[in-house]
Amino acid sequence: MEAEGPGGGARSLLTLYEISKILSGALNLEATLHDVLNVLGAYLDMRRGTIALASAESSDLSLVASIGLSLERAREGRGAYPLDVATRVHRTGMRVLVGNMWEDSRFTAYLEHGGVLESDKVAFVCVPIRAGESALGTLSVERWRDGPLDTTLDDDLRFLTMVANLVGQTVRLHRLVAADRRTLLADAARLEKRARAERAGRSQQERGPRFGEIVGRGPAMVAVLDKVRQVARTRAPVMLRGESGTGKEMIARALHKVSPRADKAFVGVNCAALPDTLLESELFGHDKGAFTGASGERKGRFEAADGGTLFLDEIGEISPTFQAKLLRVLQEGQFERLGSSKTRSVDVRIIAATNRNLEEAVSRGEFRADLYYRINVVTLVLPPLRERPEDIEPLARHFLERFNEENGDSLGFSDDAIALLSACAFPGNVRELENCVTRVATMVRGEVISAQDFSCREVGCLSATLGREIDGPTQAIGGLGAPTGVSNCGSCASGGGRPMPLSDDVMMGAGRSPNGAGAPLGTPPATPPPMAPPATPSASPASDDAAAGGVGAMDARHGDGGGVSGRLPERDRLVAAMEKSGWVQAKAARLLGLTPRQVGYALRRHDIPIKRL
């Protein structure tokens, strides 16, 4: 064959070079294959050319590129491309060379509707497209032939086979890249789905019916948490009421965490821990030179909590003077730093907490009514631990688990230890329970904490002693008062492990129990005995005048026992008890129902000399 012929060496090399350039820059596979057919049409004088590829999932062929005939016409209609011929080539891997398509009945309909006369001679060449051992599709070419069949078609067959191999490598590369891309997209979609699920899970955990950081799922706490979720979505100020140790700050943090302000700061300040001057600087900040030692400007808690939540703990302890200063910023959202005349604005949600009776403080003029109404918009009352005994066991186990994690231990509770804890009233609430668990876990020698390991079974429960020594309606600083109807711990009472009833004046004077004297928890309310009106407390809390109703009232309620309320007996009764006990203070204390320390104080108070027998 001549070098200048369609299959000649120079022209064939030039054609392969152009095709390789097209395939090397391929991005869109179908457009690239169409360009390949255009090059073949220019250099081989083709009538028509087609490329059919099998999908990666099946072996069925479909036309992806065509010249001389649109893809729509080639795929459908009576004059459609004879795909059965290409399918045979694809499946067998054998090349097909037809010198005159009119002589093959498989092409009759195709030629009749393709504008080809019966006198026209059109040759058909079809070769498989392969990549290694894989058959990917077919490449077919139709050429006009004027003379008799010669070796030109054989050269075309070999040339098209080389072109088909180049196309096969490109197709395989595209499919590998597409498969990797699909894998990456699937992985990205899976990761995004997992991330959405985790975000939804966190949101559900934060806003759903459970608060993971709060232990206790009794009816009382469930009711509180339901109100927390309801209140959190608004901007309304919240007042947390409850005894000391009930977890007011934890509830405040939970309320902030599930509110729309969760991504902003939560700032807390204990109003009772600072005097007015320091509290004003702490809340409002100060400028340089505002007072001695103010070497620079400092932002206050209001500015630090801008956009978030400010928790004012023990708000009932602030002075009336500072109450007026606080009222303005709560009403207007504006304030001035100490030493500055510049007015600053903040957007802060206020959560206040107190264990005081603010209503009584307002009636006595100790707390401003307008400030009370400003902060007491939504009130959440936290129940004391004695009103939710079902939470004692999970709380105790939680504190013990935390102790184990912090100290590398593996302690556990026995059944009798849980029973002992569940029988306690815990006037110090959750804080006292935590301290109790930490104390016994620190001192225990074995791996299991039993009832005998608690201090109330050894040297006595100091919290119970404090509860018994509270004098009448007086409460210890911080809100610790006598529990309702029983001592702190039933196991450390004087009745052999039974709950020790408190006196009427302790229970009723503190306003903590509607039951009668000696009524344990769960006893129906009884009509309390008449009480003498309380006298004005004197400067000495241990004096006889400080006891409500005097000694006579105490004797009427407690007979000769001296009373367990902590009130001092009369001088004659004290002397008689000392005489009867041989002037042994411990024995006299047991006769009078007092502690040896109280008896010693009473002897000094009445200036009674101690006889030495």
From TrEMBL:
SMART domains (UniProt xref): AAA, GAF
Sigma-54 factor interaction domain ranges (all copies): 214-442
Molecular function (Gene Ontology), one example: DNA-binding transcription factor activity
Location of region: Disordered: 508-567
Biased composition range(s): Pro residues: 522-536
Biased composition range(s): Low complexity: 537-548
InterPro entries: AAA+_ATPase, AAA_lid_NorR, GAF, GAF-like_dom_sf, HTH_Fis, Nif-specific_regulatory_prot, P-loop_NTPase, Sigma_54_int
SUPFAM superfamilies, per database record: GAF domain-like (SSF55781), P-loop containing nucleoside triphosphate hydrolases (SSF52540)
GO biological process: nitrogen fixation; phosphorelay signal transduction system
Keywords: Activator, ATP-binding, DNA-binding, Nitrogen fixation, Nucleotide-binding, Transcription, Transcription regulation, Two-component regulatory system
Xref: NCBIfam families: nifA (TIGR01817)
Role according to the record: Required for activation of most nif operons, which are directly involved in nitrogen fixation.
The protein's assembly and partners: Interacts with sigma-54.
Identification of the protein by name: Nif-specific regulatory protein
Species whose genome carries this gene: Roseospira marina
